[in-house]
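Researcher: Re-running this chain for the archive, since the previous output was lost when a drive failed. Same request as before.
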Amino acid sequence: MKSPMNHLRGTILSIFEAKRNLKLICAWEFVFCFGDGLFFFMLPVYLNQLNASPTDVGVLYAAFYLSWAVTLLTGGFLADHFDRKTILIVGSLLWIPLPIALATATDWTQLWIPMMLYGTYFGNASVCVYVLRSAPSGKTMQTFSLWVGSIALGYTFSPTLGGFLYSTIGKQAVFYIAAFFAVVSIIPIFFLNRLPKTELKESQKSARFSFTDFSFPKKLIMLCIFLQ
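Model: Regenerated structure tokens:
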């Protein structure tokens, strides 16, 4: 009889071995989140050094999350009508300006546009579809857990490393390193297989169903799309 750890290991390996797209999605998320974690959690401290009051910091973050909310809804529409791989590439490119702007900014007011661009998440619905299509039969939620786990793993050590680098080699260097990770993270997306047009049509058709038509696991997946 297999132990729980051996069973978990076997499940993870069986999913990854069968699904190339899932490996690429997890690699993209891990690399980007690692770079993001180097600076994002220290951003309020840096904004204070750029003459931002606590209220200014709050307003700037409000703009960030407003952009996030609007583009999540827009991204769902785009994922139903356009190529999802292209959406992921374009959406990822919009995240690059913020760390570069942080490295060169002399006042917090220069960060309005970069911060709102960083808040864009047009690709969330698209990446959820890629993960869903990668799920073997009977392992949908386990596959989604692997995807979310790659995000959490990326954030596990990078904030501590970012804080250390911030105090040793300087904040500008940290921002440029984060920008480098943002660029490198896009590379796996170029190797994703494009979803066939038949799958695009199927997703458009399924959009007509009501929420009550979905089973409990699919309801959880839909919730992930909006909360991620």
